[in-house]
Amino acid sequence: MAFFRSVTALSRLRSRVSNLSNSVRWLQMQSSADLDLHSQLKEMIPEQQERLKKVKSELGKAQLGNITVDMVIGGMRGMTGLLWETSLLDPDEGIRFRGLSIPECQKLLPAAKPDGEPLPEGLLWLLLTGKVPSKEQVDGLSKELRDRATVPDYVYKAIDALPVTAHPMTQFASGVMALQVQSEFQEAYEKGIHKSKYWEPTYEDSLNLIARVPVVAAYVYQRIYKDGKIIPKDDSLDYGGNFSHMLGFDDPKMLELMRLYVTIHSDHEGGNVSAHTGHLVASALSDPYLSFAAALNGLAGPLHGLANQEVLLWIKSVVDECGENVTTEQLKDYVWKTLNSGKVVPGFGHGVLRKTDPRYTCQREFALKHLPDDPLFQLVSKLFEVVPPILTKLGKVKNPWPNVDAHSGVLLNHFGLAEARYYTVLFGVSRSLGICSQLIWDRALGLPLERPKSVTLDWIEKNCKKAA
Ligand code: NMX
Ligand code: MLT
């Protein structure tokens, strides 16, 4: 019997491993002897350029679906129109970063400690190369990012020129624009760089930008909410850990939360507002700073990244009105009150996802492990039960389930980062990893200017009657 049990267990394990290895079959686990990130990319680019050429010549005329008037009027929902290499979103399963789901990333990417959360640098390596890095490679990249993390004085002065009451995203995006002064791409372009070399200064700008945005973001936090003093980086810490440290939070659990946070918010394929904006602006050969600042301005909208701010403010308004021990009935009434006043329930719904966002699920697991008794976490859990049936009842909401933003605020709040208006800045820091990784590939593959065709209502009325 014991023999059969162990055979069954072994075959279950084998099938789990083979499922995992199927989804990552093209990924390579790497040894510390492998090349550094820049050299790896240099080696990969000619292969990928050939691959793109082949796809164009062999599959260029393949149809990817019909474009309907509904799609044109309805925010291009369901219309495939972008090439985005770093991640792909499945409506039911959620995001896969270069083929790896979030639980797979948690298993495979190097962590700061045993069984810890993935290091965002490891994810950056994965996004850029499609390969899972070794711990040594990730440590090397952590150091490289720390070495690049020097922010010129005029960036702080540009932020200081704004009233301290300006929204944190306005201050952050202004800081990113000020970083642009050091763009190597812009300088190289002005000197006449050959287009085959565009990716090199784009890589430099991108790594510098990724390294510097946590410093700028931390300054914005200190300026608005603390005494305005800069907390210097700690050379013993990784990217996510250092970001938490520069914000003034050194609890080891908060460091782990920040690693998870930066990893899971980094990329969500190409069509979301921030990624798409970054890609569009970059397609005009705008440098990574200009492109990323534009992306941030999209992220700052309440239907996109600002939803994380809206969620915590909304949860706090529930507590203000009904108290922490709000009953299910009170909660239902509050949700209906929100809907009846013409507002959305923040943190629920999605343009593509049709199930609970796995980024919500992994944050819930983090909460169950580290803060199961937190009253706001318990409220978030209650909302998971109460909100979806109500949204379903409305009859028009395509996805009643919670998204990434429904959960992040209560985790940050638990560790003392309670200033909800700041939350989208954290999302923005993380998104630099995804947007910049794809931007380097845009340049390496020589992707063209983005310029879709638009039409007028007149045009639709005149030309679509027959088709209808
Ligand atoms: N609360 C109330 N109404 C909603 C919600 C919601 N959470 N989600 C969708 N609807 C409404 C939506 O406003 C639309 O109404 P109308 O026809 O009157 O304009 C209708 O349902 C159909 O919308 P969908 O096709 O289901 O969703 P769509 O793809 O247009 O929008 C979101 C997706 C994410 C913008 C939408 O679900 C929403 O507004 N959610 C709340 C805000 C939010 O959490 N955003 C964060 C998304 C994740 N992120 O980080 O970016
Ligand atoms: C994102 O992470 O960008 C959001 O979930 C929105 C989206 O994917 O459209």
TrEMBL record:
<dbReference type="InterPro" id="IPR019810">
    <property type="entry name" value="Citrate_synthase_AS"/>
</dbReference>
<feature type="active site">
    <location>
        <position position="405"/>
    </location>
</feature>
<protein>
    <recommendedName>
        <fullName>Citrate synthase</fullName>
    </recommendedName>
</protein>
<dbReference type="Pfam" id="PF00285">
    <property type="entry name" value="Citrate_synt"/>
</dbReference>
<dbReference type="InterPro" id="IPR016143">
    <property type="entry name" value="Citrate_synth-like_sm_a-sub"/>
</dbReference>
<keyword id="KW-0808">Transferase</keyword>
<dbReference type="InterPro" id="IPR036969">
    <property type="entry name" value="Citrate_synthase_sf"/>
</dbReference>
<dbReference type="GO" id="GO:0006101">
    <property type="term" value="P:citrate metabolic process"/>
</dbReference>
<feature type="active site">
    <location>
        <position position="304"/>
    </location>
</feature>
<comment type="similarity">
    <text>Belongs to the citrate synthase family.</text>
</comment>
<feature type="active site">
    <location>
        <position position="350"/>
    </location>
</feature>
<dbReference type="GO" id="GO:0046912">
    <property type="term" value="F:acyltransferase activity, acyl groups converted into alkyl on transfer"/>
</dbReference>
<dbReference type="InterPro" id="IPR002020">
    <property type="entry name" value="Citrate_synthase"/>
</dbReference>
<dbReference type="InterPro" id="IPR010109">
    <property type="entry name" value="Citrate_synthase_euk"/>
</dbReference>
<dbReference type="GO" id="GO:0006099">
    <property type="term" value="P:tricarboxylic acid cycle"/>
</dbReference>
<dbReference type="InterPro" id="IPR016142">
    <property type="entry name" value="Citrate_synth-like_lrg_a-sub"/>
</dbReference>
